[in-house]
Specification:
This protein is mostly helical. Helices cover 90% and strands 0% of the residues.
Length: 91
């Protein structure tokens, strides 16, 4: 009787361990089966984020260049305004 009591307590514990092992094997099989798909999705996501970052950087650099050009044009316009209009007498 004492032996049967020990078997009954160890049996559910071993059954739970077997179920965990089976579940682990199923998850491992699932990840191995879908690894290529996951890599492809990660690559596409990485390329999309990288493209967005490079585009934003390029846009920022372009807009800063345009601001500098506009500031230079404004400075030249101010100089011409200060000098006054060109007429035959002051040209």
């Amino acid at each position: 009787m004492a032996d049967s009591g020990l078997d009954s307590t160890t049996k559910p514990a071993s059954k739970a361990a077997e179920q965990r092992l089976l579940r682990h094997r199923q998850e491992l099989h699932h990840w191995q089966k879908n690894a290529a798909l996951l890599r492809r999705r990660n690559l596409i996501t990485g390329l999309a984020i990288g493209t967005f970052v490079v585009g934003m950087f390029g846009y920022t650099i372009l807009s800063v260049k345009q601001e500098r050009i506009l500031e230079e044009l404004d400075d030249e316009a101010k100089i011409h305004i200060i000098r006054g209009p060109r007429t035959g007498a002051n040209s």
